[in-house]
Amino acid sequence: MSDMIKIAVDAMGGDNSPKKIIDGIIHNHQSNNNSFYKIFGDENKISEIIKGKIDNDYYEILHTENVVKSTDSPLEGAKRGKNTSMWLAIESVKNKEADIVVSAGNTGALLVVSKLNLKMIENIDKPALSALWPNKKGMSVVLDLGANIECSSKNLLDFSIMGASLYTSLYPDDKPNVGLLNIGSEELKGNEIIKETYQILNDRNSNNYDFAGYIEGNHLMDGDVNVIVSDGFTGNVALKTAEGTANFIASELKTAMTGTLIGKISSLLNISNLNKFKKRLDPRLYNGAIFIGLDSPVVKSHGGTDYIGFSNSLDVCHRIVKGNLIEKIKQNI
Amino acid sequence: MSDMIKIAVDAMGGDNSPKKIIDGIIHNHQSNNNSFYKIFGDENKISEIIKGKIDNDYYEILHTENVVKSTDSPLEGAKRGKNTSMWLAIESVKNKEADIVVSAGNTGALLVVSKLNLKMIENIDKPALSALWPNKKGMSVVLDLGANIECSSKNLLDFSIMGASLYTSLYPDDKPNVGLLNIGSEELKGNEIIKETYQILNDRNSNNYDFAGYIEGNHLMDGDVNVIVSDGFTGNVALKTAEGTANFIASELKTAMTGTLIGKISSLLNISNLNKFKKRLDPRLYNGAIFIGLDSPVVKSHGGTDYIGFSNSLDVCHRIVKGNLIEKIKQNI
Known about the structure:
The structure is a homodimer.
Chain A: E1 5-10, H1 19-31, E2 35-41, H2 43-50, E3 59-63, H3 74-79, H4 85-94, E4 100-103, H5 107-117, E5 128-135, E6 138-143, H6 153-170, E7 177-181, H7 192-203, E8 210-215, E9 227-229, H8 232-257, H9 261-269, H10 271-280, E10 289-292, E11 298-300, H11 307-322, H12 325-332
Parallel strand pairs in A: 1-2, 1-4, 2-3, 4-11, 6-9, 7-8, 7-9
Antiparallel strand pairs in A: 5-6, 5-10, 10-11
Helix pairs in contact in A: 1-2, 1-11, 4-5, 6-7, 6-12
């Protein structure tokens, strides 16, 4: 079992934890017995849920006393320090006792505690928060989603390299192309930093990716661009606006589809198709944002997801480690 | 007929013009005979479409020789100068021969030519591009959508006042609230300019609007905030991302609903509900972005819309003039 991937799991973060975290581990183990789970949190609660469900060759529980709260500011979270499940899970990666760490807890605290414990990859100036987005042809990687409000052209170049490395670690057969999020497709649009980054990416030859120029918000989900690069402010607004739009449309659709008796009946007839549709857009499928730029990847699960969503973030962990993400970034930087 | 609202129409901008513009005017006239259309463009083409369809008490054609192209840069467009339908339509507003102007042509050129011809409202530093967005409870006003890439806190304050004035000119019975687009709802998040604007809006008492604090992208369409304020870069990305998300979901839904025979039949049964849904989200309903801050409003129709969409932008013109938008801004600034 020495070639198993070791995932450090903060069991205490997010809503309804540790229950959903442990259920997520159990669910994940059913389709994947190449992961070993190092579970940090309240030993009593955790062992009650997990015992008998997974052979204990596949996990260990590391008891922790304290918890970072969702209401903590990033600094408050970090100050709770070494007794927390979050801190100790990250520390186990630092000490090479685990390959990767995942938490559904407080995002700001996770970023701060990760930066305190883990080293930056050489020549990367700032780490970025990235995620997978569905598009018409598959999935794309988008970064930064909020770790860095203001970014230089060097930061955006780093994000391009890291994003492309993440994409190839997840989809080893593809050479990705990289687009720069902007408000027009013409070279002269955008602010100075974006135009500067355009020039740098355009002049640079990379074996790692092709540069696809600017991409506008309305084309993010067309599927023609694999890696979408942005500063953290704009990226966060784009991600959340897409989420809000999807919610709005779903609620309008529900109202329309069930407005009349015929509507209700035909929606019932159409239920398998609607379920297929819902499945394709299920946010749990895309759960697991990846904080990259540190010498170990850190995965952030959505705090509000359920055990299926958390299990998907464990899949992301597995694929990233198998895909040698960190090595790929080091080669390409 | 002297109390009719006079709308200067650039008939030559956008796809399939002047046909769709004139058809839009004819359609608009059917439900509204309080507008007089001053139509700028190719007289032969225009009169061929319009003659016999509307009594000529309701329009006049002002022949123009030249056209701003959609491929022109903003400056190229402006340099085509006084012979163009766009320039002359705007000039007629400047000369008080019309109350408002609308064009489906080149956005950048429209902004530049408007700024060259029209004066700024006193104490407003920069004009902004605003639009109506659908939400769960009705509509909201969002600005700036791309006229100003970088904005100061004074600009964002101006946008708040102008946006609230626009909202009350469209919905006279409501006192709107104003939200500032940001990446978190906590006071300490965001860049310095946004935090500064938060303080200014929070300290300022206005009869014109209430301040609702920060709003995140995922809540833009909840309907709790009536006026959403942002710099033009972020606003443009948000608008286009919402558009792209809606397109993506529509295409996924179509695939899912017609994937099987039962799916096809039940979608057919459900067609009136689906049509209601489509109608609610029809982008033509929201056509007509408003460039505000100049001493006359300038309305931009989407270039790709059809005659129904263009007719809706004529409705927007009518409502804005009736609602005394410019007077409202001057009172509140």
